[in-house]
Amino acid sequence: MKRFLLHRILLLLPTLFGAVTLVFILIHAVPGDPVEAMLGETASSADKAALARELGLDQPVLTQYIRFLGDLAKGDLGRSLYNQGSVSALIATRIPATLELTLAAMAIALLIAFPLGILAARRRGSGADRFALLFSLFGLAVPNFWLGPLLMIAFSIQLGWLPVSGRGGAAHLLLPALTLGMAMAAILTRMIRSGLIETMHEDYIRTARAKGLDERRVWLKHALRNSLISVVTIVGLQFGALLAGSIVTESIFSWPGIGRLTLQAIQTRDYPLVQGCVLTIAFSYLAVNLATDIIYRIIDPRITYED
Amino acid sequence: MKTSPALALGALLLAAFVCAAAFAPAIAPYTATQQSLDNDLAGSSRAHWLGTDKLGRDVLSRVVYGARISLAVGFTTVALSIVIGFWIGALAGYFRGGVDQALMRLVDILMAFPGILLAIAFTAVLGPGLDHVVVALGLIGWTGYARLVRGEILSLREKEFVHAAAALGGSPLRVVVRHLLPNVLPALLVQATFGVAAAIIAEGSLSFLGLGAEPPTPSWGAMLNEGRQFILVAPHLTAYPGLAITITVLALNLAGDGLRDRLEKRGK
Amino acid sequence: MLLSKTLKLHAVIPLLCLALGFSGCARSADDRPPGALVVALESGPTNLDPRYATDADSERIAALVFDSLARPDRSFRPQPELAASWDAPDERTFIFHLRRGVKFHNGKDLTAADVAYTYRSALDPRNRSPKRGILRFIESVEANGAYDVRFRLSAPFAAFTETLTLGIVPQGTPVDGSGLVGSGPFSLEEFRRGERIVLKANPSYWNGAPRVSGVVFKIIPDAIVRVLEFRKRTVDLIQNYFEPDMLPWLEHNSRAVVSSAQGTNFQYLGMNLEHPILKHRAAREAIACAIDRDAIIRHILKDLAVPATGLLAPQHWAYESSVEAIHFDPDRAKRLLDEAGFPDPDGDGPLPRFKLSFKTTNLDLRKRIAEALKEQLARVGIELEVRTYEWGTFYADVKKGNFHLYSLEWIGVVDPDIYYELFHSASVPPNGNNRGHYRNLEIDMLLERGRREMSIDKRRVIYGEVQRILARDLPYVPLWWWRNVAVMQRTLRGFELYPDGNLISLRRISFATPAG
To answer: What is the domain-level CATH number for residue C83?
Structure first.
């Protein structure tokens, strides 16, 4: 296990390095100039040149890249071009909001998918099964940016139960988390259903049944445990989708998270902030996938890793 | 072998949309861009079955022409992704070792980004336009296919018929195309049906972020996004393109599921 | 052993706890301080330090926290604020006599030293203030005793009064956004960029304490969500930031009070005068005649705009009333194009006379306007290729002159010297904002005279001539002036719209019944 962990962590480094390089190239290839935006309409060209020099933006891109890597190695993400604040501090204030939203979305997805998936699998072809199918198709087909306002109109305006947008307590969290978690709930419902149906035909389940174990225990002890493995994998992979979705969901729900910060940074060409945000997102995705790999091993000790 | 009802229904719905796309000028009562500013946000009427949008354009015509745009975006994006994904996956799976390691790291890097973020960056670099959206979505969507192909090829490579082909002096290219591709294709197709649905929705999300189809191009995603602001006063602007997306995604998923079941049965 | 529940709970409960744990440390977005007003904004301010505030939201909120020497009135003439009066011993010297007894929010007296410090730090190149450009005519600022400030200009510069709106900060205020203290009707309590800004009433404001306890600015990026928040009564006031089509709905379904008033923000169609087609005046006039402003204003903008004759709005002191708006006349447009040598190859058929690209931003309303323009120009045989860009890319292209046609608006125009910045041949990028490369010697001369002339009557004559020439030459096609519009909850009293959209009336606002 120790060797496995070490190996996996070492593998993270080239991936992160690649991600950082890619984002550096992209942001410098995107047209737009932070100096113009910072100095406003009336600045003289001498002032603009001076600022570009001060920010190091007049240097060749390769020099800027090397300097950026050097700072990064020291753990320095630089300062935001606009309000002079340090990038890491800016990101740190936004991380809790995004974590809160993605974790809640994941929890809601699991809370929907498990009962629905199990029900659909146990009563194949029933009304419940058909409902599960419809739900999962709906969840996949409705884009977040449409679902969000629909939920707001229904739950905040018509029923008056929940706040419309913004971050606050649990009530504020429900609608954005549901919006963000919908697609994941849909995917998981299908996975759990088909996983359970498949396992029920496996030999060892038949054996368990033949031994006279009652149906409920067969389902719970054997079948569910087995399908859990694939669920964990999907949860890991889908975390990336949640982070991506949070960019849209946060904009709709006025949610002060990393997703909106990234968008703002791109719009204002705040290079250091864009780099910091993307690095944070890539890192969290990789970390979650590492975590799923570890959980995977714990749930299913049969799996071994040769490499 | 009996065709499953799900597959049949999915294929039927899909065929209907493809027909709508192909014969849009014959089906749609108006063009997709014909404006009439003083007849905006109108509800259903005999002249406009599904009402009109903010610029007085016929919603039915836009949904019909939209099938053209959205299906084209979905299919070409996935085609592009599959081509890239297949070759990278095949290279990695066939040569293994260092090539495999390097290519899979590349896949890791791309997967570590939220796709939408890369799409934003790509479309910002390439400039606006639907063709660029397709390129951007295609360039980020291939990683899943590459992993799939690599996995399949790693296991196929050990099969006897591949060894035989290689021993007979077949070039790697020939082995891959003649022997490996046909074996991987079914799994790719299943994956692709889901990919098309995802691409249609991703185009919509890009529209929401202001990077989708150029106006007045009637993609369903762009229509859905344009209609959002009128959701309280003219819900039909979002309802119909939304319905079109839902049915298409439904059809694609039914077809994908059916296809997978069929392949699995054949495999057994 | 029953695995089901335990497994499920194991998976879900920690996630929920974690999620709620994070939400525990977030303050509820709804807990408005009692008696405070809530205003919805779209993207919100980027920097509230008056030396850096340049976007509209930043300037409007900074004006509530920081007083300035003077502030323009409704016809854009400067009116005293912190300066009780001023005099000009010669054309290059101004002496301001400060109001006595004005205190900063931290209790310190506001003196001439603070004024001098504020201007000097904005002028200091090391501080890279975006205001340095408009302040560059100031040679020196000296405190003359505790209550007199002496400005020395490097040359006579009529638009100098425009620089008097700079908010005053206490001596020694750093430029990193920390410790922002002003002397205005509200003090800054909390600034979370992209999220919310909380202002608290200043009970000892020299010009009368505000009647609300404070103002919360909520940043809500999505237009439809702003409307829903208003409907839910978690927002009291929205100014301008909503879809025109939502107004009737808000009035009926939310019993909102809607008020609108003439504004000064100027929407125009910019053109590249070095383009082989657009360099012909006739082609530009044809484009101007082909645009049906009235139809766009009536249907798309829901009458929230008025057809414009030029950059300066009618209430401006320098506005030239003899300039007439261009009339919609597609036949004239066709005739002009025919005569200028751009015949339509197939009459009313699908082939265009020529193609031009039109750049705009990717906001919904801008896209809709672009689509309407495309349709209208198509009717006279001009094909418009609409290209929408995200703001950063769009703005960079426009500044570099990389366009055929684009549309933008000028906001916050105060002194007519802005014409120098826009149309003088010395202002071609990167030295100014003459992005279309307009060159006219007569205009150059007039603009140079206008900025040296101190008499307002003589300047009015000069800029009247400038406006007539520009209306003939059409380096811009004037589109419309936006009206300002506000929706507010019924209980709100005393909100007043200003032509430039500023929010200074918030200090006189009150609730008829306690807010809830």
So the answer is: 3.90.76.10
Task: Specify if C179 maps to a domain.
Answer: no
What is the pTM (predicted TM-score) of this model? 0.88
Query: Would the pLDDT of C199 be above 60?
Result: yes
Interchain pair C388, B214: CB under 8 A: yes
C443: CATH: 3.10.105.10
Among the partner-chain residues C18, C195, C234, the one whose CB lies closest to the CB of A163 is: C234
Q: Are C221 and C455 in contact (CB under 8 A)?
A: no
CA Rg value for chain B:
22
Averaged pLDDT, A58-64: 85
Is the Cβ pair A41, C421 closer than 8 Å?
yes
Q: Which residues of chain B neighbour C299 with C-beta distances below 8 Å?
A: 37-38, 40, 56
Question: B226: nearest CA in chain A?
Answer: A146
Q: What is the DSSP letter of B3?
A: P
Between C113 and A246, where is the model more confident?
C113
Q: Is C58 domain-assigned?
A: no
| C299–B37 CB contact, under 8 Å | yes
Asked whether residue B36 is domain-assigned, the answer is no
Q: Please, which chains are in contact with C (at least 3 CB pairs closer than 8 A)? A: A, B
Task: Identify the CATH number of the domain in which residue B185 sits.
Answer: 1.10.3720.10
Token pair for residue B229? 């602001």
Residues of A in contact with C430 (CB under 8 A): 45, 48
* pLDDT over 90 percentage in chain B: 23
Tally A–B CB contacts below 8 A.
Answer: 112
The residue-averaged pLDDT of A119-132 equals 86
Q: Across the interface, do A42 and C25 touch by the CB < 8 Å criterion?
A: no
pLDDT tens-place string over residues C458-467: 999 999 999 9
* B31 backbone dihedrals φ, ψ, rounded to 5°: -80, 170
Question: Residue-wise over A83-111: b if at least 16 C-beta within 10 A, else e?
Answer: bebebeebbeebebbbbbbbbbbbbbbbb
Structure tokens at C402: 């990389």
Domain range for residue C100?
Answer: 67-165
Nearest CA in chain B to C370: B215
User: Where is the domain boundary, C99, C131, C165?
Assistant: C165
Is B38 in Cβ contact with C300 (below 8 Å)?
A: no
Contact B224 A29 (CB under 8 A): no
Fold category of A87-299 in CATH: MetI-like fold (1.10.3720)
Q: C372 versus A283: which is more confidently predicted?
A: C372
Adjacent-strand bridge partners of B38: none
* ipTM (interface pTM): 0.85
pLDDT, one tens digit per residue, over C51-69 is 988 888 999 999 999 999 9
For residues C196 and C219, what is the distance between their CA atoms, to the nearest angstrom?
6
CA neighbours closer than 13 Å in the CB half-sphere of residue A282:
27
